[in-house]
Amino acid sequence: MNSIPEMDSSNSENTNLHNNSTNATTATLASPISSPSSSTPSRYENQKRRDWNTFGQYLKNHRPPLSLSRCSGAHVLEFLRYLDQFGKTKVHTPICPFYGHPNPPAPCPCPLRQAWGSLDALIGRLRAAFEENGGKPEANPFGARAVRLYLREVRDLQSKARGISYEKKKRKRPPPSQQQQISTLPPPPEALR
Question: Is residue 169 part of a domain?
């Protein structure tokens, strides 16, 4: 058996090399070195791909099976409700004594659901993935009005049930640069002579 030198798995050109170690070494030296960020997808891109594959699997397992072209906002809502069974966020019901408490002092039988922020981020990634995979923006089921209304309803319900406000964070304005500060100062006295 030939021994194969350890290769950097992030360099895709190395995956198709022969077992001959001299060819592998020559090819590695001759290939351009790419930066990790250009050859490795970002965490966001990986998550988006996984989410897209999960949604595709959901459509395949749907009864009757659905094609993406026949998918509507109603199917997206069905998918979001299906995902709730895997949620880890306790959402208190109005009859629960801990309704509106962010840190309840004792356990309760209230259901676990997907957190609003997770659903919102998921829909954002799926919207982008739909268009990247050839979908037209005006036909994007992830941008349907019903989906936006559902997300708003989930946000409001979880906000009340968990006693947490989901107010939009205000952007901080960057401090003025030093160059601007220097130009607004009056000239030193010796410069006026």
Answer: no
Cα–Cα distance, 9 to 113 (Å, whole number): 38
The total number of structural domains in the chain stands at 1
Inside any domain, residue 176: no
Contacting residues for 157 by C-beta, under 8 A, at least 6 apart: 91
Reply yes or no on whether the pLDDT at 180 is more than 80. no
Task: Please state, in angstroms and rounded to a whole number, the distance separating the CA atoms of residues 4 and 176.
Answer: 56
**Residue pointed to by tokens 């595709």:** 56
- Cβ neighbours of residue 108 under 8 Å, at least 6 residues apart? 90, 92, 96, 97, 98
23 — pLDDT class (breaks 50, 70, 90): very low
Q: Residue 186: in which H helix or E strand, if any?
A: none
**Residue 113 in this model has a pLDDT that exceeds 90:** yes
Indicate whether 170 belongs to any domain: no
Q: Burial, 78: exposed, middle or buried (Cβ in 10 Å; 0-12, 13-18, 19+)?
A: middle
**What is the domain range of residue 82?**
43-162
User: Which band of pLDDT confidence, cut at 50, 70 and 90, is reported for residue 53?
Assistant: very high
Rounded to an integer, the average pLDDT of 144-156 is 95
Residue 50 covered by a domain: yes
pLDDT bin (cut points 50, 70, 90) of residue 13 is: very low
DSSP label of 34: -
Q: DSSP 3-state assignment of 113?
A: strand
